[in-house]
Task: structure prediction
Amino acid sequence: MNIVVCLKQVPDTYSERKLRAADSTLDRDAADGVMNELDEYAVEEGLRLAEAHGGEVTILTMGPEKASESIRKALSMGADKAVHLIDDALAGSDALATSAALAAVLGRIGFDVVILGSESTDARMGVMGAMLAERLGVPQLSFASKVEIDGSDISINRQADYGYDRVQATLPAVISVVEKINEPRYPSFKGIMAAKKKPVERLSVADIGIDPGQVGLASAATEVVSFASRPPRQAGTVVKDEGDGGVKAAEFLAAQKFI
Amino acid sequence: MAEILVLAEHSDASVKKVTTELLTLARRFGEPSVVWVGAGAADAQPRLAEFGATTVYVAGDAELDDYVVAPKAELLASLVASKSPAAVLVASTAEGREIAGRLAVKTGSGVLTDAVGMDEGFVAEQSIFGGAIIVQSRVRTGTPIVAVRPNAIAPEPAPSPGPAQLENVTVAVSDVAKTARILERVVAERGERPELTEASIVVSGGRGVGNAENFALIEKLADSLGAAVGASRAATDAGWYPHQFQVGQTGKTVSPQLYVAVGISGAIQHRAGMQTSKTIMVINKDPEAPIFELADFGVVGDLFQVVPQLTEEIEKRAEG
Result:
């Protein structure tokens, strides 16, 4: 089985994340880069599917040079090879252009399943799986908390507010995963050493037949008009419980007309 | 005035609150038309009229709900083509955002998610990076598609009701939109509590709650307030509370009138999911917990003492 896991390098949630004043894009230099957390679950699920059904796991990422750190981590976890879509023309691409570029690569390298995290911790749009399924014309199996494959049949549990939906489809398909699905493995020392020898193919937009004028910040279908830091919340009242903490809390709720 | 399409979220004839919020927002910028998928439109008509709907496009074909997301995006795309609306508004729920994403690809339009407000020109306000930065964004290509965060807009009935004229629409769902079939909907037991992202009050428990059984304390407090129950990632990872109730960066983003954080330290992972709550109350034994920075009212104390006392006090006041 040909398994492709899409991953995104994002600014670490635990470092200060900023936008650049010049063009309102993410300041990637200001924060440490890490693999998007939910994508670790996507890598893990890809590895488990390959272990159960045979096949290869290919990592696909779009991003600047720095994104190779996340590729390396995924290869250390056990993925077989990687494709890095890297081109200055892609900087500042919105979701629409990103999905077009990723779909172009996926069309070129082929796949039985594409797996990705259900959203990234930076943009948090949660649209990429749906957009890729739309562009590739394959089933959308998103928000999966469980994946089962039997031959060319695939079924997932699609997490919903009310519980979950059982969803069935035929491969090839796009899957997005939620963190309930598995527990990602840590790279072993052997895995880290082996990753250094694994092939990483670098592609430019020209390589995938995309017009550089159709991607990047200048042609994005959305734009940031302005941004500002949120004003800090006004300091509230904090009391120490001296046997009447619950009563005081109730008094606050009553004063605010919640009860 | 320009027509604005609003995709309704409903369960049968019951209109979800977020739909009344979307209608309230859409009225400021044009004439809202509701897109209603499935049964119940006739019964819901008075409610939609109350919030100013001009037209209700009813797609009653059951097939639209049998497959994941794609048929609804096709329906919206056909309405965008035939009605040329000024914008399309959907709820920024998991499914709403996915429909918006597919519609954006189909129509070559820009899409914005998780809007918490809107200005002229469909400029959306978004709260990003765990609420640290407020961004104004707009769509500059195609028909603006904006997913609006539930609970961010206060719903207000229209000064005078809209006609909410029902108009049946049909869409020939393509084969490619029928590839991910929903076999079964498994509804988890959650009693009478409101939905997490829609609730005006949310009570969440975290690591301090200690185990699954103790979540009964959180549920009792929530029930006394008519609130939804949430949980921090520490609590869902430990298996104390089901994953779909996780509030935070990898879970749900909530924006209630009142958020009560119990035994939650307030890591950025959690704050990202609740920072835009209007009023925040904190109960935690550690006075140094970062969650207190967000608190409008905080109690430093043992939750096993404070929470039962608070619940009892609320119930007493409700009776009195």
About this structure: Chain B touches chain A through 97 residues (CB under 8 Å). Chain B has two domains: 3-178, 201-319.
